[in-house]
Structures are given as structure tokens and as C-alpha cells.
Amino acid sequence: MASLSLFFHDGVLQQGSEIQLAEDSARHIVQVLRMQPGHKLELTDGKGHLATASIARAEKKKCSVLIEAVQYFEPAQPQLHMAIAFTKNASRNEWLLEKCTEMGITTIIPLMAHRTEREKIRYDRWTNILVSAMMQSKQFHLPLLKEATPFKQVAEQYSSVPQKILAHCIEERSRKRIADAIIPHKETLILIGPEGDFTGEEVALCEAAGFTAMSMGTNRLRTETAAMAACAYFNMINHAE
Length: 241
Prior knowledge:
This protein is an alpha/beta fold.
């Protein structure tokens, strides 16, 4: 049996209710997929709920559905929070958002470090990328995209996370290999620096706050490559079957 088409609904999913879908979803359902009243589909709110629904009314730009059943899925454990000093390259940033979402990241924090290049975040566009990646990978929890946050504030806000890691390239300072730094089955915060790396002062601040310094290998990686590698490794050691 073929799987049902999955759509995002930014609202409450309650069994027995009839809801109006967003115009972009309605247009895709009616004009692209040519679905008619009675056809079934699935909806997620990005908060763990998955609803099975049938189309009640279908017009050119409007579509309402009747929710027949709702399931709840617990978020994957352990959680991964990643603070990233995004670059000015929009396409590389968007690629990273997509791939980290596919890997099941919990929180994405645009990090304002001393050498951060990108200070303005296109939240609407970035959120749409996260939604698309969540649905493509058949997940039901949308990553939390935080406001751009100063370096010191991130360290303070996530002080209770049991595993805190800072990836940097300063060779004179002690660092652990990624395989030794990231311990499985622990909620984790990873800080990924800008193209020019973290400053010595930022590294010292994190070390004093209980962060483990981590090396990403002998090759010097771009910001998005380092973030993707760390996210993929975390996913592999915690969720690979």
C-alpha cells in the first residue's frame, strides 16, 4: 500500500475536526496532485502529532480536510542542540539547515561569535526549509530555530545540558578527537565557529564553563561542513540501527 502524502499544518490537529489548510498546501493538493473530496492524506504540526485526514472540500486555492485520527510521537532521544556561526553564503547555510533537519537535530541556534559574518537571519525562509526537510524525511518534530544569540548567552542558557562541546582549530590548545569528545546517549550542545574560528578568549570562556574542546580532524573544514559532520556523527552513534 502506497504511503499517504504528508503536509504541514501550523495549528491544532484534533480528531473529528474540519480544518482549512494553508493556501500553498491547498494549491499543491488540488492543482498538482489533483486530489478530490474523499481522498486521504496525512498532516503533521511539527510538534509530534501525525493526523490521518480525508479531503472534505477542494477548490482551486482552498482545501479543507476532516481529521479522522491523530497519533503522537515522542521526540527522538538524546537531543542535539547546535549553535552555528553562519556564513554570508546563503546557499551553503540553507543546505546545512536542510541536512541537519533530515538528521533529526532538535535546536538550531544562529551563533553570534566575535568573527561571525552573518548577523541577519531570514527566519521565514529558513523555517520553510526546515518544514520541507522535516516532511521529506518523514519526521513529525520541527527543529526549533532560535533567534541569533550572543556567544556568552548560549553558554549560559544551555549550562544544564550534560554534554557541552566546542569545535575549534587552535592547534596550541588541547582538543579531543570527535570519537572521544561525543559520548552517546547524552543530550548534547555543540558549538561550531565562524570561518575565522573562535577566538582564544571564547575558547577559554567555554572551557571554564565545562565545555569539551573537540577537533574535527586534520583537514580544515568550512563551517557548514564541520556542523554537518558533527550532526551526522551524533546521529550515527545514537540512532543507527
